[in-house]
Amino acid sequence: MRTRKLGRSGVPVTELGFGAAGIGNLFTPVRDDEAYAAVDAAWDAGMRYFDTAPHYGIGLSERRVGEYLRSRPSTSYTLSTKVGRLLEPHDGKGEDRAGGFAVPAAYRRVWDFSAAGVRRSIEDSLGRLGLDRIDVVYLHDPDDHAEQAFGEAYPELERLRGEGLVSAIGAGMNQAGMLTRFVRDTDVDVVLCAGRYSLLDQGALTRLLPAAAERGASVVIGGVFNSGLLADPKQGATFDYTLASHEVLTRALKLKELAERHGTTLRAAALAFPFGHPAVTSVLVGTRSAAEVADTVQQFETPVPAEFWQEARALHLLAADVPTPERENHA
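Request: output the structure for the sequence above.
Response:
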C-alpha cells in the first residue's frame, strides 16, 4: 500500500489508515478477539497508519491498539492519538454512552487543553498503549475551547515536538473553519478533517485544502462515507449523524447508479475522491472486524474510471471546480 509523508515532518502514513474508534466499542460492543482480528487484517492488507484517542471507549481503543502494536517492530508503523480529554476515575454505574461508546462507566472525560493537561494526556496514553512513543498527536475537537487550544495546548505540542517526544502535531475536528486557522496561524504538520471532504460535502475545499497546499501541511480525511449514507444510500440512512434529507439521499442514489454504470461502486468512489486534492495524504476508515477491513481494502483497490468523474460533473453531481483523482486507484 502506498505511503505519503505528513507535511514537512517526514512521518510516513499509508494512504488508507485504520481508524480505531470502532474497536473502542463505538455504538455496540466488540470482543477482544474481534478487535485484534480487525487490526491484524489491516496489518496483513498493508495498512501501517493507526489512529486512536482516549475518547474512543474511554481508553479501550488505545489499550487494544497498543496490545497489538507491541508485537510489531516499533519503526514499522505510524501511530496517532489525541489530546484534549483527560480520563478521570468515575464510580458511575452502567455504561458510558457519551459519544456513543458501549463501555462501562469506569471513567469520565474531562476537557483540558492546558499545557499541563496536554502533557499528562500523552503520558496517560503511553501508559494505556504500553508503548514508548507516539508519532502524531492531534488536538481533539477543540471547537468550544479555541482560546486555550491556541494559547496553551498548541504551544505545548510544539514543545513536545521540539523535544523529540512526538514527531508530528496537528488538530482533528469535524469542521473546516478552525482547522484552516490552525494551518494558517500555526506550524502544524497535519490536520484531520472528518466529514467535510466527501462526494457529498466539499466544505473543506473553499479554504482549508488550499491553505494546506500553500503551507505544506497535510490533510488526513475521515468520514468519507458521511456516517453511512455513502456506504449504503437508502431510506433511513444517516448523513453527518442525522437522518439524510430527501435531497441528499437522492444525490447519493444518483452517484451510486452512476458508479455501477461505470463498473465500479459508490464506496470505491467515496474512498478515492479525497485524493483528487494534492493536500490530502491519507483516508482513515473506522472498521471493527476482519471482514469489514477486507471489504474496505477491496473497495479501496477497486478502480474508478475517469469517465465516472467526468459524467458526475456533467450531471452536476460534482461542481466543475472540484478536483478528482487522476489515477484509477491507490492500491
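The first strand starts at residue 3 and ends at 6.
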